[in-house]
Amino acid sequence: MERPARRRVPRRLRTPYAPALALALVAGGFAAWAGQDWYGAAHDDRAAYAAQRDRALAAGEQAVQNLNTLDHRDLDRGLDLWEASTTGELHEQLTSGRDGFADQVKEARTVSTARVLSGAVTELDDRAGRARVLVALRVTVRAADGTRTDKDSRMLGELTRTDGRWKLSALGQAPVGGAPAG
């Protein structure tokens, strides 16, 4: 009986390393592409800008909350926190009027507590170290007689970066509805 003629398989297909080599080339190409993509994202200015925006927002929300929270039983701590949260003209106003304001709060015997509801950065100039934030908060005031009043408000804050930290340099009420800013 005669054997059927064998078909010759090209030598490159008979090498057991060919599939492994092809897989290694594909994996190497993917790794190079992924590495280049990661490097580009890590060194993208947009990522640094977004991180700075997030830091400004967090600092702005905290500072606005600080300036709307004060307990007559621990005034020095609260007023020190106000001063630590501010810079520039706002800081000067707070320090120069501290004693008079402390007397008013002691006499009224109030406790105000603020809670941030939401916030947003409306402007950011990272190079100049300036930002603006809009913060919505609920302020609860407890009077000496035990009555409690809740008030929701929106505040516009201007931030200045000082020694690498964002601090409030101006603060005011945001206009509500169609009312112009005053």
CA(first)-CA(last) distance: 108 Å
Q: Determine the fraction of residues in helical runs and give it as a percent range.
A: 40-55%
Q: Please write the CATH class name of the largest domain.
A: Alpha Beta
| Class inferred from helices and paired strands | alpha+beta
Strand order in space, largest sheet: 1-2-3-4-5
What is the residue-averaged pLDDT?
89
Q: What is the CATH architecture annotation of the largest domain?
A: Roll
State the shape. elongated
Strand content: 25-35%
Report Rg. Answer: 31 Å
Order of helical and strand elements? HHHEHHHEEEE
Count of DSSP-assigned helices? 6
Outline the biggest β-sheet: 5 strands, antiparallel
| Total domain modules | 2
Structure description:
The chain is an alpha+beta fold. The chain has two domains: 11-41; 48-173, Nuclear Transport Factor 2, Chain: A, CATH 3.10.450.50. It contains six helices and five strands. It is found in: Membrane. It comes from Streptomyces werraensis.
